Amino acid sequence: MHTQYFTGTRGGQNLGITFKNTVLSPGASFGGLYTLEKLPKFDSDDIKEFSTLSYEELTRIIFNKLGLNVERDLLHEALQLYQKFDDKTSPAPLYSMTPYLYVQKLYCGPTRAFKDMALQPFGEIFSGFLHENKHSNDYLILVATSGDTGPATLQSFANRPNIKVVCIYPSGGTSDVQRLQMTTINADNIAVFGIKGDFDDTQNLLKELLKDVQFNASLRSKNISLSAANSVNFGRIAFQIIYHIYASLQIHKINGENVHTIVPSGNFGNALGAFYAKQMGFPIERIWIASNANNVLADFINTGIYDISNRNLVKTNSPAMDILKSSNVERMLFELFSYSRTREFMESLDENGKYALNKEELIWVQRYFGATSCDDTYCLEMIKKYAKKGYIIDPHTACGIKAYETIQAKYPNSKCVLCSTAEWTKFAPTLAKALELGDLKDKEALEAISKAYNIPIPRQIVSLFNQPEIHSAVIEKQELRDCILQWL
Ligand SMILES: *Cc1c(COP(=O)(O)O)cnc(C)c1O
Question: Is the distance from CB of 354 to CB of 348 less than 8 angstroms?
Fold first, then answer.
């Protein structure tokens, strides 16, 4: 087995950084992100062989080929957590909605959104790596969430020894279900704070705190190391590569065709996994970025210009995609254009709020990616349209339908996989509105939809409403540091 050494996206080669190092300490030097130095390439024989493997076997072989060294038993334990998901044969099952549209259900885990796909095994791996380092410190993991990462991280780390988690979310920026998924967790090693601000404020606050000298010194004096479980952590990306490979292989096996992979996108972590899968040679034709009204990513893919200098974040029905500064794009840029160019782009983004690809670079990007954006009106229409056909989809998945229609218009009858990133139960008030059941709060909306469409509400959601909210604090941005130190 070879070892992958990670490199910084803006420079910093040959630092000897392993997978384990990046998982435990994801903050790269040179201001960038740690990323893969080399990707393996697979040919049609490999693809044939891999398409007969179980999900666990597939994960193992891809991790090995990528040089992500995880001890055999530890990886097994991590993947065992998928046994709690809805379907024991695959954590991310596919179903076909039309002859050309497969939906991949990435929300079958405990918090009913795709973050569980990575964060469930990630928690086990993180813990395992920590305990391999015998005399190590305790770890503090900081998470900023727009609603889905927080619950999934807390679920993954609750009650794990030597690890504490602080989770911050924009107060009022999540659904009731998402909030309850954080505030009702009964574990001593977690703290949850609502922040007065939007998601970008929350994410920036976390970035500042990671760099805060005084804060870091206070932690050191308590023998606590700092880490992060946001999608910049490569440990999460690693698991997000696998289900894209799995879906492309399944469909290729049936049709012999390359598939168009549609990914509702915010921070570009999910899409990056699909990009790596394609780059390694798996049968993915193109990756389609589905944006909402915050369509900075879609504009970037379509024009080559990433420009947030004149934009304000808009609140939409698909809040997990209400993001302007999409962190993981940087890893894609690195893979296609290497260090110095990535550094130029990112410096330009910091200084001018924008950067632009040249013509050839844009052609490259468009060989991999297409993009569409979808406003709230269209999103609600799609929810209604598909409900009539018997499919209840969440608002993020609904944005992906726009991409599906665009693909079919351009490439008729081609096969598409739509990554369904959340279950409808996480966004029930929006669904109730789309389905003309009224202006309802989460609980009432869940019940109304369940009754009208005769679909069950999963036990993970029902139980939320019977538990006390333990972590109910809402604070100002500048209070955070002291609140955390006090809690520790
Ligand atoms: C996180 C999330 C997304 C966006 O995923 P990224 O990897 O950040 O692009 C989309 N939909 C839902 C429901 C999510 O929770």
Answer: yes
Does the C-beta of 261 come closer than 6 Å to ligand 1?
Answer: no
CB atoms within 10 A of CB 221: 8
Q: Which of 33, 169, 267 to mutate to test the pocket of ligand 1 (most atoms within 8 A of CB)?
A: 267
**CA–CA dist 216, 139 (Å, integer):** 12
Q: How far is the CA of 136 from the centre of ligand 1 (A)?
A: 33
- Distance from C-alpha of 161 to C-alpha of 237, rounded to nearest angstrom: 24
Kindly report, residue by residue over 394-424, the tens digit of the pLDDT: 999 999 999 999 999 999 999 999 999 999 9
- pLDDT, position 7: 93
Q: Residue 425 and residue 151: Cα distance in Å, rounded?
A: 14
Pinpoint the alpha helices (H) of 353-413. Answer: 359-368, 376-388, 395-410
Amino acid at 191: A
Report the C-alpha gap between 157 and 152 in whole angstroms.
Answer: 9
pLDDT tens digits, 431-445 = 999 999 999 999 999
Rounded Cα distance between 309 and 327, Å, is: 16
Using an 8 Å Cβ cutoff, are 29 and 16 in contact?
no
Q: Which of 175, 208, 150, 224 is nearest to 480 (CA)?
A: 208
CATH assignment of 83-113+235-466, given 3.40.640.10, 3.30.470.10, 3.10.350.10, 3.40.50.1100? 3.40.50.1100
Domain boundaries of the chain, sorted by first residue: 83-113+235-466
Quote the pLDDT of residue 403.
Answer: 98
pLDDT of residue 228: 79
Testing ligand 1's pocket by substitution, the residue of 104, 111, 114, 401 carrying the most ligand atoms inside 8 A of its CB is: 114
- The answer to whether the CB of 244 falls within 8 A of the CB of 277 is yes
What residue ranges of the chain have pLDDT lower than 50?
Answer: none
Cβ(157)–Cβ(128) below 8 Å: no
Distance, CA 142 to ligand 1 centroid (Å)? 18
Contacts of 429 (CB under 8 A, 6+ apart): 175, 176, 439, 440, 441, 442, 445
Nearest CA among 312, 298, 292 for reference residue 377:
292
Smallest CA separation from ligand 1 atom 1, residue: 320
What pLDDT shows up at residue 63? 98
